[in-house]
Hints:
Layout: H1 14-72, H2 75-85
Amino acid sequence: MGKNRKHNETRAQLGPVLKAGVICLLLGGSAVGYVLQKNKLHELGRQISKRESVLNGLKAENKLRAMKLADLQLPHRIEKRVQKLGLVSTPPVQMIWLPEPTVEAKTNDAPALVFDELE
């Protein structure tokens, strides 16, 4: 009997095997890339939430310190601290009062600089 090429192929052709391999590699690579990106997004989300909690803590601490500073700047608090240090206020006899300079007094007699348009 003669050989029939149509029905007597026993070895697999290389083209379809390579095509299937490339498709599997592309799908597998895409899946691995997707998982890596999702993990990265999850990690970044955790970092953001952690830093937001730190920021909220710092804002609360800043608010407490601002209230403490405002309390320390009250006049009666300052007077208590001054008395605690043993300091006394200066008597008016020892103070020198300077008059406030007037706005009309000119301090510079030089003419004003005016730039004309270049011709």
